[in-house]
Design brief:
The structure holds three protein chains of three kinds. Chain A is mainly α. Helix content of chain A is about 80%, strand content about 0%. The longest helix of chain A has 30 residues. Chain C contains nine helices and nine strands. The model of chain C has no long low-confidence stretch (mean pLDDT about 90).
């Protein structure tokens, strides 16, 4: 097949670590029943990318395509969406679905509008800003890898430190309150971890796909184990494996986008699991 | 007698194609390159107003028309576009517009044999762009015969310049050492260029920037660079440099000594009022960068004003 | 002067967006070292009283003092067992994990669960006779078993005051007897137990003290007195 050259190596490493992180963070999001929020958050990064681009363009940074600014913008609007939904859940009588749907559509729509404005700018390097939608895994640079590794370290440390807090929060929020735990702080920590994974993953696998990588591994893992710690390991392994395999397939087969390949691998693991483990306790 | 004159007058008015109320022509073009032809053919007169929808740095494969674009197209007397699906998101709109006014793809006279499959980047071969200019000239003469002789004269001048440009590009590319004649860019925009001027071409993304660059392409190209010791690769103004940068990193990891040879204008031209904002300037910029980076001998493009005999020799058909 | 373990003063509360009061001017103190029951019809505000006391709901007026202090200062001494229904039984934790959760506050923010903690939790499971099922996922347990696990969670931290919301709801007779035994053991150890109880008929046999509630205090005192006909009529009548 394909010899593992430098670029492939970067892609495989990046995909493996990102996939594992998605599996890990996604487990808590799944248990917290917040997968819809991740959906809204990942879509809400679009206007942030647009705003980041406009800011960088105005300041003359790389004609707009200044990556740290783009990611900062993405993180900002993503966070805004997540907290707006939280606020709506706590302070209005709106159904959760409605809150999420409303926020998602408004933010994403704003993002599309911004993109079309940016498209018309002259002398701007706006080419392929919509690669953030489906990602561009083939062009990973060593800088991207450093970013992923930093995120990995931060996520693992946070998870280890907050393991029991996250568990309790996801299991029994009310009881968590009564133990004196600051529920909102832990919730925010989880949302920040989710944001981190989404923003880093956005560039590589796109904001539409990142959600699949956050949801499918934990759901699959849950079908195979009843123990939380096992579920975390398994979900990370599945996420990493799917991302790795998808990236490898994309490397070997011409014209196969990595993003799609990864989702298909994840689905390939999920459906048989759902079938065979239907009657698991 | 006066009555007869009146009838003739009315018939003449009716026979005229509909124009803007002040008698001037408003022409809309999609890309800058197409607009460039129209500007040159219709120059030296205030009679024609030309506007390009896509500015500098805009990617025509991905460009989605806005409401103001639609308004412009509606008001226009004539519309020129590239065709061959370059303006991929505008096909239906252009078809609709074509029901009410002349909407002309400048590539319409190129036969299938002259095309490279579905590749729309024909302006990269100057000779083919000459044919495109004929399309524009004849369409203008047909629609606006009052200014026909002006268009004709301008077209001859333009074509003379393009013929000289064509020779220039050919000789310049030939000055690159044979084993280094490999042009590596961000997407497959230079197929016609390579075919016409004798240089191998590799694009990381396909014909349209909508497709993702495969990892395999990057790996294979990195291997190619290392094994053939190619000194430079090129990014493009309208496409993200991400894949090219990844390619550079990959090639360097294989021990190749390669650098970014420059940024080329592929799907769009430079800013208006700069040299690169015109077709000739744009091609010269590209050629200069390519030749310089790949080890050829760069000379300037000089086009002395042609003599009347030379002009007369240029045929517009 | 003895320290009152659970002292409610002028507590009034209405839910956001509603004008009607869920709790109206509650004044009551649980006797230390005794078993008290809070009784009333549905919607009387019994669970609401606990939730307000534990800080899960905001009261507009009044306060609740624990051992003479605010809850935040004495959380280690107060143990809360919520209603069983509000839990996700599919969650990947077993009985031991749940019992250990009672110790999280003790273990501390950001710190790890140690073996000694697990042993403490196991001891709590033994008290409710669930030690054999320690490693079963909670969804695999029966209703009575689940209730016992949550009781173990409440017992694990060895608190001085226990607030339990309907611990007897929907359980088998064996579990019921077990819980009553535990109550007696706690009382013998000098602990205070306050229970929101759903069944007024059994209350007299189990509890020393009863608070009869229907948005406001109807009566409180010894079980036999409070559970007289007149009081019950008032509490359970349509208007309350």
């Amino acid at each position: 097949m394909v010899s593992i050259g430098y670029n492939s190596l970067l892609v495989l490493c990046g995909a493996l670590v990102l996939g594992a992180l998605c599996g890990l963070v996604g487990s808590f999001i799944y248990l917290r029943k917040n997968t819809l929020i991740s959906d809204a958050t990942s879509h809400a990064t679009l206007p942030g990318i647009g705003i980041g681009f406009l800011v960088a363009f105005a300041l003359g940074w790389e004609q707009g395509r200044h990556l740290p600014t783009l990611l900062a913008g993405a993180a900002l609007t993503g966070a805004l969406a997540a907290f707006t939904i939280g606020w709506m859940q706590r302070n209005t009588r709106l159904n959760n679905d409605v809150a999420v749907g409303a926020v998602l559509s408004v933010f994403y729509g704003a993002g599309i509008v911004l993109l079309s404005i940016i498209q018309r700018l002259e002398n701007a390097s706006q080419a392929a800003l919509d690669s953030f939608l489906l990602g561009q895994i083939a062009g990973i640079s060593i800088g991207d890898i450093y970013l992923i590794l930093i995120l990995c370290a931060v996520t693992i440390i946070c998870t280890l430190l907050l393991l029991k807090e996250l568990t309790l929060l996801c299991f029994d929020e009310e009881f968590a309150h009564t133990t004196g735990m600051s529920v909102s702080k832990v919730d925010i920590a989880l949302i920040c971890l989710m944001l981190g994974v989404v923003c880093v993953g956005l560039r590589m696998v796109g904001l539409i796909l990142i959600l699949a990588l956050l949801i499918i591994p934990p759901v699959t893992a849950r079908l195979w184990t009843d123990k939380l710690s096992n579920m975390l390991w398994l979900s990370s392994a599945i996420g990493g494996l799917c991302a790795l395999t998808g990236a490898y397939l994309s490397a070997s087969i011409e014209h196969l986008p990595a993003g799609a390949a990864i989702v298909l691998c994840a689905a390939a693991l999920f459906f048989p699991s759902a079938l065979f483990r239907r009657h698991a306790a | 007698m006066r009555f007869f004159g009146l009838i003739i007058g009315i018939l003449m008015i009716l026979a005229q194609p509909v124009q803007a109320s002040d008698g001037s022509l408003y022409i809309v073009a999609t890309t800058g390159q197409v607009a460039d032809i129209v500007k040159n053919v219709a120059k030296d007169t205030d009679h024609v107003r030309i506007e390009a929808l896509m500015g500098t740095g805009v990617d025509p494969h991905l460009y989605r028309p806005t409401r103001s674009d639609i308004a412009k197209l509606s008001k226009a007397d004539m519309v020129f576009y590239n065709g061959l699906h370059l303006e991929g998101q505008m096909v239906e709109l252009l078809e609709k517009m074509g029901e009410r006014k002349p909407v002309i793809p400048v590539t319409e006279r190129l036969s299938e044999a002259e095309l490279l499959g579905h590749d729309p980047h024909v302006w990269m071969d100057v000779k083919k762009w000459l044919m495109a200019s004929d399309v524009v000239t004849l369409a203008l003469e047909d629609f606006d015969p009052a200014y026909g002789s002006l268009y004709h004269k301008n077209a001859q001048f333009y074509k003379a310049e393009l013929v000289a440009l064509d020779d220039y590009v050919r000789t310049q590319i030939a000055s690159i050492p044979a084993d280094k004649r490999l042009l590596i860019t961000a997407h497959d925009a230079f197929g016609y260029f390579g075919d016409a001027y004798g240089i191998e071409v590799v694009g990381l993304q396909g014909l349209s920037t909508e497709s993702e660059a495969g990892l395999k392409v990057i790996e294979d190209t990195a291997n190619l660079i290392a094994s053939r010791k190619i000194p430079a690769v090129f990014s493009e103004t309208s496409v993200s440099a991400r894949n090219i940068n990844a390619l550079l990193a990959g090639a360097k990891a294989r021990g190749a000594e390669v650098a970014l040879g420059g940024t080329l204008y592929s799907d769009s031209m430079g800013s208006e009022n700069t040299k690169e904002g015109a077709y000739v300037g744009m091609m010269v910029h590209n050629v200069t960068n390519i030749v310089n980076a790949l080890g050829g001998e760069v000379v300037a493009f000089i086009f002395p004003p042609p003599t009347p005999e030379q002009l007369a020799a240029v045929i517009v058909k | 002067m003895s320290i009152l373990p659970f002292h409610v003063q002028n507590l009034s509360l209405h839910y956001g967006g509603q004008s009607a009061e869920a709790l109206s001017d509650i004044n009551w103190s649980a006797p230390a070292g005794q078993l008290s029951a809070i009784i009333g019809p549905n919607g009387a505000g019994k669970s609401t009283l606990f939730k307000a006391a534990m800080g899960l709901l905001n009261a507009q007026k009044g306060q609740v003092q624990f051992f003479g202090e605010n809850l935040d200062d004495v959380r280690g001494q107060v143990s809360y067992m919520p209603q069983r229904t509000a839990v996700d039984w599919d969650f990947p934790v077993n009985a031991l994990d749940v019992a250990t959760m009672g110790l999280y506050a003790q273990i501390g923010w950001l710190k790890r669960i140690k073996r000694t903690h697990k042993e403490q939790a196991m001891a709590a499971l033994e008290r409710v006779k669930m030690a054999d099922h320690a490693h079963k996922q909670i969804g695999a347990l029966s209703g009575g078993q689940q209730q016992r696990v949550f009781l173990a969670r409440a017992l694990a931290q060895n608190a001085d005051l226990y607030l339990m919301d309907e611990p007897f709801a929907g359980i088998d007779a064996k579990t019921q007897d077990l819980i009553i035994d535990i109550f007696h053991a706690l009382k013998a150890a000098g602990k205070t137990v306050i229970v929101v109880h759903h069944d007024l008929h059994s209350a007299e046999g189990i509890f020393d003290e009863v608070l009869l509630l229907n948005k406001r205090v109807i009566a409180h005192g010894a079980a036999s007195e409070v559970l007289s006909e007149t009081h019950l009529k008032t509490a359970y009548s349509a208007h309350g």
